């Protein structure tokens, strides 16, 4: 790579290291000079969305070239490339190697991932890399609160964020987080983000980890009732109610017919809409077929 | 669910709308995108009020990702939950208020807040004063307070705890910004 190109990439890399937030916006270049990035107050970095191609080509040609590459050069070029293209597995693997040879510092790398996650909240590779790093660190050094806060943030930024909720499930299992506390946190989060089906499916996952009993399911149904009073036309609430009913039907002790009839009654109090009708049809089918039609 | 902005405006006629006061809550939106989001919210507020008749209320969906990007590659479904909804209410004497929220925020609570904001504004600045006001000279202190408190509709709105019936809300129709027609 020529000296000018290399100094461009180094400059980008050091600004990325220094800044606390990165965004992509169209910036205008003139004939005299090309604008690649803009930095304000030393913490906000803005990369030019119209000049992605040349930078990415430069980085790619360096990383995949047949010449020998020095480690710190690889560090710099992968760092730049990953801001533009988060799913480049080769670059992540290069960084894994650099981390193992201690050229990259773990804490700084976690910081870098934080910033990238603000930029691309739904990136599978990012989360996978983060999990790999956390495993390298060892359980006692990982901060649970920070990880959970990160999951919250990315789940809010991108609607139905599969990668984020998967990471959360992993954290709960890896760090042995208390399930009841997590149920409470999840309830508060769902109050603010009602339509997020991933949040509800995570809640069902938490419930499955506990020893199920009638009271638990009844509490959940009551909470769902309260929500349905105001938000009767949100699909995610109805689907969650369906999940709860199926969970309840698994019990041997519970009187299925009574439960289903009680449900049909309680729906009549809610304003009629597409989802409530669909739900009543489901309940009627279950009642008439003794639940054998659906695999539980 | 969050509220992005509250505006208080004065509608003289269908061509002249002045923004008397505006408050924004754009945390969570990137630093450079905040400028753009602010401008487009101001534009939507002005346009919606220009095309809303005196004494009516409406909620309009503006196809725009809450994070400031336009809908690029998503196939635009009408219930795309990432769009901004603009709730507007114009009183018969020309005072108007607008709230920009995301699509999760309950519509009824935002319209309650709209009426409350207009009442507060009229109490602080009586009719004769705000007719003469210049752009952006309103200084109602409670506006930013209300924006902050109403971020959580469950705590802020007493009616959420009771059954819902508002007596002075008639049909609130959701239109898209494209379908807004001139109101004469």
Automatic annotation (TrEMBL), chain A:
Q: Which GO terms describe its cellular component?
A: cytoplasm
Report whether Repeat shows up as a keyword of the record: yes
Annotated membrane-spanning segments are none
Under Pfam families, the record lists: PPTA
Which InterPro entries does the record match to this protein?
Answer: Prenyl_trans_a (IPR002088)
Q: Which UniProt keywords apply?
A: Prenyltransferase, Repeat, Transferase
Read off the SUPFAM superfamilies from this record: Protein prenylyltransferase (SSF48439)
Which GO molecular function entries does the Swiss-Prot or TrEMBL record give? protein prenyltransferase activity
The UniProt entry, under PROSITE patterns, shows: PFTA (PS51147)
In terms of PANTHER family, this protein maps to:
PROTEIN FARNESYLTRANSFERASE ALPHA SUBUNIT/RAB GERANYLGERANYL TRANSFERASE ALPHA SUBUNIT, PROTEIN PRENYLTRANSFERASE ALPHA SUBUNIT REPEAT-CONTAINING PROTEIN 1
Q: Which family does it belong to?
A: Belongs to the protein prenyltransferase subunit alpha family.
Q: Mind telling me what this protein is named?
A: Protein prenyltransferase alpha subunit repeat-containing protein 1
From TrEMBL, chain B:
SMART domains referenced in this protein's UniProt entry, alphabetically: Longin (SM01270)
Which superkingdom, per the lineage? Eukaryota
Q: Which GO terms describe its biological process?
A: endoplasmic reticulum to Golgi vesicle-mediated transport
Q: Which residues form the Longin domain?
A: 85-125
Q: Which residues form the signal peptide?
A: none
Q: Name one GO cellular component term.
A: Golgi apparatus
- UniProt-listed Pfam families: Longin (PF13774)
CDD domains of this UniProt entry?
Answer: Longin
Which molecular function term from Gene Ontology is one that the record holds?
Answer: SNAP receptor activity
Keyword annotations from UniProtKB, A to Z: Lipoprotein, Membrane, Methylation, Palmitate, Prenylation
Keyword GTP-binding listed? The answer is: no
Membrane topology per the record? Lipid-anchor
- Sorted alphabetically, which Gene3D superfamilies does this protein's record hold? Longin domain
Q: What is its main location?
A: membrane
Question: What InterPro entries is this protein classified in?
Answer: Longin-like_dom_sf, Longin_dom
**Compartment(s) of residence:** Endomembrane system
Q: Tell me the SUPFAM superfamilies matching this sequence.
A: SNARE-like
List, alphabetically, the PANTHER family matched.
SYNAPTOBREVIN HOMOLOG YKT6
> In which family does this protein belong, per the annotation?
Belongs to the synaptobrevin family.
Protein name according to UniProt? Longin domain-containing protein
